[in-house]
Amino acid sequence: MNEERAREVVEHLQSAALELIAAARAALDVAEDLVKDPPSAPGALGGMQEAARRGARPDAHRVQRIDVS
Questions:
Q1: 23 falls within a domain
Q2: Under a CB-based contact definition with an 8 Å cutoff, are residues 64 and 46 in contact?
Q3: Which residues of the chain are modeled with pLDDT < 50?
Q4: Can you tell me the distance from the alpha carbon of 29 to that of 40, in angstroms, rounded to the nearest whole number?
C-alpha cells in the first residue's frame, strides 16, 4: 500500500469516527432531555423511532461496492 492510499484510509477512518462521536453526542443530548423532562419522553422517542425507520429503508443509503485487488 502506498503512502497516498494509506493517508486516504486514515482520513476515512477519522471521518467515520467523528460521525460516530456526533451520533453519540446527539443520543446523549436526547437522553439528558428525557431525564430533565420525563413527560416529553413519548414525543422524543417517537421522533427517534421515525428517524430510525426512515434510515432503515433500503433506498435510504446508497452503497458503492469497490473491488480491491
A1: yes
A2: no
A3: none
A4: 13
